[in-house]
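User: For a benchmark we're assembling, each entry needs the component sequences followed by a predicted structure for the full assembly. Here are entry 17's components. Please fill in the structure.
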Amino acid sequence: MLKIIIPTVMLIPLTWLSKSNMLWINSTMYSLMISMTCLPLMNQFCDNSLNLSMLFFSDSLSTPLLMLTTWLLPLMIIASQHHMPKEPPTRKKLYITMMILLQIFLIMTFSATELIMFYILFEATLVPTLIMITRWGGQTERLNAGIYFLFYTLAGSLPLLVALIYTQTTLGSLNLLLAQYWIDSSTHIWGDSLLWLAYMMAFMVKMPLYGLHLWLPKAHVEAPIAGSMVLAAILLKLGGYGMLRITMMLSPTINFMAYPFMMLSLWGMVMTSSICLRQTDLKSLIAYSSVSHMALVIMAILIQSPWSFMGATALMIAHGLTSSLLFCLANSNYERTHSRTMILARGLQMILPLMAAWWLLASLTNLALPPSINLIGELFVTVSMFSWSNFSIILLGINIIITALYTLYMLIMTQRGKYTYHIHNIKPSFTRENTLMSLHLVPLLLLMISPKIILGTTY
Amino acid sequence: MFRGVLWLLAGRGCVGRGLSTRSGGSTPDWTEKVSEIKKKIQSALPGGPWDPLYDTSHLPPEHSDVVIVGGGVLGLSVAYWLKRLEKPRGAIKVLVVDRDHTYSQASTGLSVGGIRQQFSLPENIQLSLFSVDFLRNINEYLAVVDDPPLDVQFNPSGYLLLASEKGAAIMESNVKVQRQEGAKVCLMSPEQLQNKFPWINTDGVALASYGFSMSSSRMQTSSGKEMTLKRIHEVHVKMDHSLEYQPVECALVINAAGAWSGQVAELAGIGKGPPGTLEGTKLPVEPRKRYVYFWHCPEGPGLETPFMADTSGAYFRREGLGHNYLGGCSPTEEEEPDPGNLEVDHDFFQDKVWPHLAHRVPAFQSLKVRSAWAGYYDYNTFDQNGVVGPHPLVVNMYFATGFSGHGLQQAPAVGRAVAELVLEGQFQTINLSSLLFSRFYLGEKVEERNII
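Assistant: Structure for entry 17:
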């Protein structure tokens, strides 16, 4: 693990000591190289984990997420190049440092063995994100957005700290690998339910669960592009990852606690998809679609069946790439027209045809077109949900339809039709932007060939 | 709709979160105080944009989709129609800026307030027809729930245009065009004129066209700041208010600045280039001062008085029910008054306006001028007709200005046309492509054949 962490830490001196004209190139290239060093982690025993040290390990659940994290850093840096150049060099470097810091925390979070270390880093990821949103976000609402983001997540995760410390004192160790083998006594007391709640709430807020999702549209919309990308792609998955790990530790007798959250997720999935149909702001639409997809993941994790775990993991990776791609596309629109309203920038297919191709592919993966990995995730979740309860298929089916509806609505609104007059002289797509989009799409499309690497521990 | 426009003008660009003051409170003072307190609490609580350093709620927002420069009747009309025609509700954020919220020099408030459909250009006729319909059914468009219905003091008395021998042929062909477009006009001979309006002296009148029209004199309110624009291809608008400065990022700018549209266009870099090229074509709108006089004549014409325009160019209309009249005359090119200030020249009335009035309406030989004021025409020096639509080079600047004295009467229709252009990309209801900016460069004049 150190071979990933130390180079990432050394990216910080790289940023600060680079010359201004080499800043972006250096950071992009070196972070790409670091993502390559993450690949060998894939080579591991599929029935167990790769125990690298006392502190770090990686198994088939954390490896795809680690790959996604390290892959995303160069993409974030590429995406930020346009709106950054007017800032003084110190601020640019600070921005990149925030991104790198976030990256370090995320890598360590995903590979942590000790749950307290996981918790500390989980909380630590909030700080650079908050700084990115409030300092470099677009509008005055970002301050509000930052506060919502911070306090929702903090309030949700304080009970987690208490629960972890309690478990540490009762169990003696919070090593994740050992905790899997912890056999719990069968009779349960109501305190167990509280413990379950305490464990889960932090991740529910992070996912986000439908009732606690208010911070997400605000944070995603007001964040700068790199912030939106990392929020959508990785930070949401922290919740999913945490839930996947913790459910192995919790007693199976209190699984009835999952029901309220199942209901909230089922209903919330349909609700947020419907809200997407009404959105006029492009980024807001993508943010709500994130909530909808993550609701599927929550449901899958809560029903705890092998297929659903596979679906959840696949969906997390697929959604990470797709959502990040959609945000980059929306940002390329925003940089040209300076407005996020969809109806002011229409008919882009005529003007930027290659970008229209990326839009098309992004929309197709977003609506889970076969054989993309989004479909694999959604399909596995749907099938396992059906076996859990026959009636859930109705809501899941409605959600799939509405997802297709709003994705196509977004595609048609921005790409098709007669273009508005005032966009006919926007700058054509930069190579940088095309690179960004294709770097998102290439993993997404290549994973179709061998999705087993993202299917997680129960494959 | 009207409330939507008001909230937009308050600079927030989002539908009010229950910051309503329409609680039907007992006295205005009380509701004022309550709304102040509500505003203070609102700014402290989460849920809105706030800056921890200082209160910025009086500044315009940092971002708006459309910025309309000029808060007169045209600017507000465009804002209204943009919000009314958008399909998903709350899609577009509109910001209207004006440099003077008292409207002391705005043409809107100083206008005589007449509407006619007797134009020679079909587009003008259609614009006026729709505006007439708008004003007639104003409560359908602008009424606010729980408020008393609007009364814009709409007097459908008609508009009477007189033509001498020379102008008779033109008037006839105009009337034909007007009838084709659907205006209700009738041509009258001097005898018929004498029968209908006994107080007219039909000396020298060959033909009269009498059409449907009205006058209105009330306006709606808004807020405002000053602004500067940046150049071609860039979409930043900066706001200035005393020393405070708020850059408003926007996607579109609509120039509805009336008499000062030329200056605003220059700020955007329109017209900076070698003359004769498209870059060098300026927006030919400049302020021209016009006087309006208000007099009392006890034996003057009564209730059936139309808005009368004499062959000499003098015009007048009835105001109220007490034998008061408003009127004036367009000066010839040589006697153009200096538009630097809004001082009234009373000798102009004595020398130029009164003789013609007295000739046409003998009762006006004895009248007493009660007051007078001056206002600006946003005079289009090229062809005295409005400019509507985008600029070919500064792609996100739209014009809605230069109507040279008939802006007020065509404002609702022009607002709708510009909103359609922004939202749909083309004119849907009235095709104003002959009024685009490019005609200045191509040299195609779109002229009206009788100007007041």
